[in-house]
Amino acid sequence: MQHFKTLSAYLDYLELPRPEHPMFSVFTASGGGFLPCPKESSPPITNDCYSISLKKIVKGDLNYGRTKYDFTNGALIFIAPRQVMQWDDSVVYNQKGFSINFHEDFLKGTELAHQIKKYSFFSYAANEALHLSPKEEKQIESIVENIDIEYQNNQDEFSKDIIISQLSTLLKYANRFYERQFLNRKELSNDLLEQFNKQLSIYFDSGEIQENGIPSIEQIAHKLSVSQRYLSDTLKKETGKTSTEHLQLYLIDEAKNRLLNPSKTIAEVAFELGFEYPPYFSRLFKKKAGISPKAYREKYRMN
């Protein structure tokens, strides 16, 4: 897989103009024009840059989670360093958005270098993009316009601080708009939890739990065609619990059924559920059920 260590090398590969700054670039469709068109397709690649881009689709389907949508407005996409990217020519974009690309070292020594790692949407897949309302789109474009003005100006000692301040503002708005999007997608969130539990049920029924142990959240997310971070964030917003917590609750529910079988020891139940160490199973059970496996068994055996 090809990896690009500098912003210039990455933009050269995309067949885009070289940046005005060695570690930062902005492309906008100002004055009613169009963005420069990058390569139509690419095999999997990675780079050391962050990317924030607004795209408008005029042809082809883009999925949000597992659902197809007609995106009249823009889709805001965030890509983190070393995230694998691949695309083909099946989706045609109206090149009237913007594209901001900057090397991770551009943020070194700034507060944003730490803050940006907290924005989980940089770990989402492209099909989990932020879909802006017309009002939100105008707010984001206004910030990008300020960034572009500073980018095009002659560089001085204030330029970088101003650009980073505007970038920080853009990300804070994006975070707010994602919150709105999660709230507006309750039906999708409920379906995601249902599918999450269904995948766990399939995994247990197939006997994989004994062979391969407890499945990782990454494995489940892959089965659901969503990113691990998006899965956890969506479930957290809707249910108040992360994907890890839902997995643990599923395991505890399974444990409760199996503990009532008097022919099995607590250690056997733990091993059946994929726990390598029975003491860890007992601690988790007590934490989630409020009672130890042994006490639970004795309590309900008497009823």
Could you please describe the fold and organization of this structure?
Residues 198-299 form the HTH araC/xylS-type domain. Keywords: DNA-binding, Transcription, Transcription regulation. Helix 3 (134-152) runs antiparallel to helix 4, helix 5 crosses helix 7 (217-224) and helix 9 crosses helix 11 (278-289). By secondary structure, this protein is an alpha+beta fold. Helices cover 49% and strands 17% of the residues. It has a 5-stranded antiparallel β-sheet. Strands 1-3-8 form a 3-stranded mixed β-sheet. Strands 5-6 form a two-stranded antiparallel sheet. The chain has helices spanning 7-14, 112-115, 134-152, 159-184, 186-205, 208-212, 217-224, 228-239, 243-259, 266-272, 278-289, 293-302, and strands at residues 2-4, 24-28, 42-47, 49-59, 62-64, 67-69, 75-79, 85-87, 92-103, 130-131.
Fill in the keyword field for this structure.
303 residues; alpha+beta; Jelly Rolls; Arc Repressor Mutant, subunit A; 2 domains; five-stranded antiparallel β-sheet; three-stranded mixed β-sheet; 49% helix; elongated
